[in-house]
Amino acid sequence: MNHPLTVWKQHYEVRTREIDPAGRLKFSAIADYLQEAAAHHTHQLKIGLYQLKPYGLTWILSRLRIEMKRYPGWGEKLIVHTWPKGDNHLAAARDFRLEDHNGEVVAIATSIWFLLDFHTMKPRPLAALPTTFEVDSTIPEALAEAPEKVPATPADTPEVLRCSPQRNDIDLNGHLNNACYFDWIANALRPEDAPFRRIDINYLAEVKLDNEIGIRIARQDGQVLAEGVNLHSGHSAFRARLMRADQ
159-244 in CATH: which number? Predict the structure, then answer.
């Protein structure tokens, strides 16, 4: 059964806990806004997390790019607009636009999602979805470029922080919620690194409750590369590239 596609709108007001010491909205709060809006929209389209659970399926975020136009502050009223913008056999793309109460764009984002089989922990083709929808190609893209593949940090990159998920960090899929990675990255940075105008993050492997992640930070040409390595497996859990506002 096909379901009509609409642009979903989700309203927020910036809370005290969502701003950093400089009074700027945190990247982790922005990521939280985006995933909440996406969750509501997929539910409307009958392919949300709870609707997929009986089929042994779930959505996982693979890549995300956020570009900032300006940083909102405490108390500002914001609206996230989100819509699917296409897919291939395995991956689904979704765009976002974050506006203030005057309709001015404060951030834009694009993302890549995979459909995961709970039993095999492997991606499934999108044809396995229990229902379908038509992507509206007339909706303008928020970002034409796909989230990029972030390179590994150089071999000699120092580890600056170790993190382990707490119970409150674990989501419905049983692993670290994607917004938490942004707080880990922020905690590993220096105050003078910020503010950033763009961040690309690749989620490479799930992080579970008993995992310990070493965060490595490399700085080059006004950019920051961040990589989280699972200290149990030695595999990369995530990689991120942050571009400073003055670059």
Answer: 3.10.129.10
> Mind listing the pLDDT tens digit for each residue in 218-236?
998 889 999 999 999 999 9
**Cα-flanking dihedrals φ and ψ of residue 169, to 5°?**
-90, -10
Q: In this structure, is the dihedral angle defined by the CA atoms of residues 42, 175, 112 and 117, taken in order, positive or negative?
A: negative
The answer for residues whose C-beta is within 8 angstroms of residue 198's C-beta and 6 or more apart is: 65, 66, 67, 68, 242, 243
- Prediction pTM value: 0.94
Cα 98 to chain centroid, rounded: 14
Residue bearing tokens 């389209």: 45
* CATH number for region 2-133: 3.10.129.10
Compute and round to an integer the Cα radius of gyration of the chain: 18
Ramachandran angles phi, psi of 44, nearest 5°: -60, -35
